[in-house]
Amino acid sequence: KEGLNKTRNNIMEGIDKVLSTFTKLDEEFFEELEEVLLSADVGISTTMELIDELREYCKKHKITDSNDLKKFFKEQLSSHFTAQNNQLAKAVTPPTVILVCGVNGVGKTTTIGKLTNMLKNQGNKVLLVAADTFRAAAIEQLKIWGQRNNVDVISHQMGSDPSAVIYDGLQAAKSRKVDYVICDTAGRLHSKVNLMEELKKINRVIKKEIPDGPHESLLVLDATTGQNAMMQAKAFSEATDLTGVVLTKLDGTAKGGIVIAINRELKIPIKFVGVGEGIDDLKTFDGQEYVNALFD
Ligand code: GDP
């Protein structure tokens, strides 16, 4: 949990320092706390909301003790996480269809490789579908992860229709009786309309073959890109119904306050976090655990 620990240290050291430095919960105190949250990548709007709520709580309950405030702060963060389901969906009748989207470079292919490994280790049969047909490298990369995991990859030529690959992938998944079929999709954000149309078409094809699918639409975000990741999350959530977020490269940042921002602003559960480049470096994410770790 190296990534999570770094995050924890950064945010909490900051909060602790502010809480212990300031005896009076005055204006200066709130400004310092705001500074800490912003520098941990919590983001402006979430930070403002949190600070406002803390101020209000202090006023309403005449809080002067920083420890009482800490307790409320923990509850405030927890309340959002508890409502979220961080479990990976499982179809009543296999295959479970997982769509994975995200812009290039965030770690989408690597995440699919790691997730395949995790599901295989749990005893599942997995099939991969290379529906990011825009980049030849994406197809090749997925094939490499397929070999590494010893699972088949369904692919077409670069430039072909992603929906056609998905269709073939689902046929193969059904006839080979796999448990999970993971579909890599193109992550071009240059046009939201295009993205929306492509994802819509893909969803239509899946629904026709697997009526209750896709069971997961996961968005992969790079934790080191902070507010940029938040913007991607907003764009994708407007383009399609996301069921979860995978936050990669948490090992590469001491910030990680983006976990709080995603949770507060998008209300999409973070299901996994990436904490390294290796095949085992994907961890399930539990919001409650995260908050507990922040405040322990
Ligand atoms: P894609 O373009 O979104 O498919 O991105 P890739 O999966 O090719 O990953 C881009 C780079 O990020 C590669 O060098 C990966 O090894 C690296 N990467 C992916 N996930 C993680 C992670 O959790 N931690 C670290 N440190 N690197 C990662």
Automatic annotation (TrEMBL):
GO CC terms, sorted: cytoplasm; plasma membrane
User: Mind listing the UniProt keywords for this protein, alphabetically?
Assistant: Cell membrane, Cytoplasm, GTP-binding, Hydrolase, Membrane, Nucleotide-binding, Receptor
Where on this chain does GTP bind? 102-109, 184-188, 248-251
Q: Does the keyword Protein biosynthesis apply?
A: no
The SRP54-type proteins GTP-binding domain sits at: 269-282
Please provide, alphabetically and separated by semicolons, the GO molecular function terms listed in this UniProt record.
Answer: GTP binding; GTPase activity; signal recognition particle binding
What domain of life? Bacteria
What is this entry's stated membrane topology? Peripheral membrane protein
> Which EC number(s) does UniProt give?
3.6.5.4
Show the catalytic activity.
GTP + H2O = GDP + phosphate + H(+)
PROSITE patterns attached to this UniProt entry: SRP54
Localization: Cell membrane; Cytoplasm
Q: Which GO terms describe its biological process?
A: SRP-dependent cotranslational protein targeting to membrane
List the InterPro entries. AAA+_ATPase, P-loop_NTPase, Signal_recog_particl_SRP54_hlx, SR_rcpt_FtsY, SRP/SRP_N, SRP54_GTPase_dom, SRP54_N_sf
The enzyme class is hydrolase
Name the job this protein performs: Involved in targeting and insertion of nascent membrane proteins into the cytoplasmic membrane. Acts as a receptor for the complex formed by the signal recognition particle (SRP) and the ribosome-nascent chain (RNC).
Q: What family is this?
A: Belongs to the GTP-binding SRP family. FtsY subfamily.
Q: How does it assemble?
A: Part of the signal recognition particle protein translocation system, which is composed of SRP and FtsY.
> Which HAMAP family does the UniProt entry name for this protein?
FtsY
- What is this protein called in UniProt? Signal recognition particle receptor FtsY
Source species of the chain:
Anaerobranca californiensis DSM 14826
The gene name reads: ftsY
